[in-house]
């Protein structure tokens, strides 16, 4: 069993940062083959800092990465059509499942 100096929360944070970098790059790049080359560069940057174990140095690296990501953020990111705020989000919602006309209520009103 290997011991690690960093918690699982730290690993999840770094994974999330990596995924956000990849997603942001995909927002800027139209062609998947061009994006793949950029994704390899992003991966190399993360791998370069993989063996940093000093918490202070790591905090500086992560702070710079967050600032860099914020500076490069796409102003109009791609949203899948079926996801919330996508172009097809709730376009054809199913009708309510219930009686179309309540006869008992109509008779009671008369």
Automatic annotation (TrEMBL):
Membrane topology: Peripheral membrane protein
Subcellular location: Mitochondrion inner membrane
Region (Disordered): 82-110
A cellular component term, taken from the record's GO annotations: mitochondrial inner membrane
Key word Metal-binding present: no
Keywords: Acetylation, Electron transport, Membrane, Mitochondrion, Mitochondrion inner membrane, Phosphoprotein, Respiratory chain, Transport
Quaternary state and interactors: Mammalian complex I is composed of 45 different subunits.
Similarity annotation: Belongs to the complex I LYR family.
Record-given protein name: NADH dehydrogenase [ubiquinone] 1 beta subcomplex subunit 9
């Amino acid at each position: 069993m290997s011991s690690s100096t960093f918690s699982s929360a730290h690993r999840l944070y770094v994974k999330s940062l990596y995924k956000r970098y990849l997603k942001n790059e995909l927002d800027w790049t139209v062609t998947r083959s061009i994006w793949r080359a950029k994704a390899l560069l992003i991966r190399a940057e993360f791998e370069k800092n993989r063996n940093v174990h000093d918490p202070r140095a790591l905090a500086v690296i992560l702070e710079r990465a967050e600032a860099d990501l914020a500076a490069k953020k796409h102003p109009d990111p791609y949203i899948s059509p079926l996801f919330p705020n996508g172009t097809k989000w709730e376009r054809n919602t199913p009708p309510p499942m219930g009686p179309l006309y309540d006869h008992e209520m109509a008779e009671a009103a008369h």
